């Protein structure tokens, strides 16, 4: 495919509710969007890096820099035919997986449009609706959290995930379980604990959690495998898994029994599919994580979640939980059964509201290499 232009934008969006994890609070998102133009079509990508390099080493600004300086020019000198060609084209750049995913995912979107099929179909998706859960940030008080859970359960969400950290864990689980003994409940520590907390973590087993996500170091497999031996509750790895080899290592070492797949963290659709397949072949279920995306990234997550081994409810939830007004039309909607219906139109199936995006744009840059070629 001939790429005619790549345009980067930084758009500012304010979350409806601030989101607190063990590593900090996010209220205002600075989202990097990539618009890739090819032969009259436009593919969109969203960078899932945070504003600060606290979830991973990348940030909105580092991704911008890497795309402008390295990845954009690479696509100008070597034209991809498929989204799946991007990892090879980008291979000289180490790391920077969220920057890479921004462009690769836009090219998969273009490819689906060119083929006249949905992105889900292009990826090999089999589900025509996906199961949705919610991820609930750390709150000021337990009553406030209980009120939020009540609302999300009433909306139909199939699984409640609680962000946790030392001091916001056992008492919270106990109060939630007392009120809702049978709901599917999980927790996500974002690396807030250490191996010396193992005795404490073992007591989580009393609350019948579907999983505990990334309790230990962000870059660890070994100590998670030590911990998993002591826990009944399955460990799910998020931060630790960057590619298929990581997934294989984690599965072989029994560091986890479940894997969270995030497109940005693994570098885009190609590697996400590879992680998915590796897990499926070994009987390890996966689900799709979220990074407080706008409708663009959310629509990629929706499509990814249609692959066969996405058998657990993901953190892919409705636009309205995050944004007063999302930048896609239609917005991502969750049914009262806690499902998202998969669009059947070519590409992502959620149009970008370009005028709204333009009005939210605070920075814009065209990749120069395409100007020179064009
Ligand atoms: O660990 O899953 C995580 C948000 C930002 C960074 C990391 C994580 C999260 C979430 C929110 O849990 C998921 C979402 O609702 O988008
Ligand atoms: Mg997580």
Topology at a glance:
Blueprint: E1 5-21, E2 24-38, E3 41-46, H1 60-77, H2 86-89, H3 97-115, H4 119-123, E4 129-131, E5 134-136, H5 142-155, E6 160-163, H6 170-179, E7 185-188, H7 198-202, E8 212-213, H8 222-230, E9 235-237, H9 244-252, E10 258-261, H10 263-266, H11 269-281, E11 286-288, H12 295-304, E12 328-329, E13 339-341, E14 351-352, H13 354-360, E15 361-366, H14 368-373
Parallel strand pairs: 5-6, 6-7, 7-8, 8-9, 9-10, 10-11
Antiparallel strand pairs: 1-2, 1-15, 2-3, 4-13, 12-14
The protein binds 2-succinylbenzoate and magnesium ion.
The site of 2-succinylbenzoate has 11 residues, from loops.
Q: Could you tell me the strand content as a percent range?
A: 15-25%
Mean pLDDT: 97
Q: Which structural class fits the helix and strand makeup?
A: alpha/beta
Widest sheet: strand ordering: 5-6-7-8-9-10-11
**Shape, principal axes of CA atoms:** globular
* Radius of gyration based on Cα positions: 20 Å
Largest sheet: 7 strands, parallel
The small-molecule ligands in this entry are:
2-succinylbenzoate, magnesium ion
Q: How many beta-strand runs?
A: 15
Features:
374 residues, alpha/beta, four-stranded antiparallel beta sheet, 14 helices, 15 strands, globular, binds 2-succinylbenzoate, binds magnesium ion
What does this structure look like?
This protein is of the alpha/beta class and 374 residues long. The protein is 36% helix and 21% strand. It contains 14 helices and 15 strands. The chain has helices spanning 60-77, 86-89, 97-115, 119-123, 142-155, 170-179, 198-202, 222-230, 244-252, 263-266, 269-281, 295-304, 354-360, 368-373, and strands at residues 5-21, 24-38, 41-46, 129-131, 134-136, 160-163, 185-188, 212-213, 235-237, 258-261, 286-288, 328-329, 339-341, 351-352, 361-366. Strands 5-6-7-8-9-10-11 form a seven-stranded parallel sheet. A four-stranded antiparallel sheet has the order 3-2-1-15, with helices on both faces. The longest helix has 19 residues, at 97-115. The protein is globular, with a radius of gyration of 20 Å. The two termini are 14 Å apart. The model has no long low-confidence stretch (mean pLDDT 97).
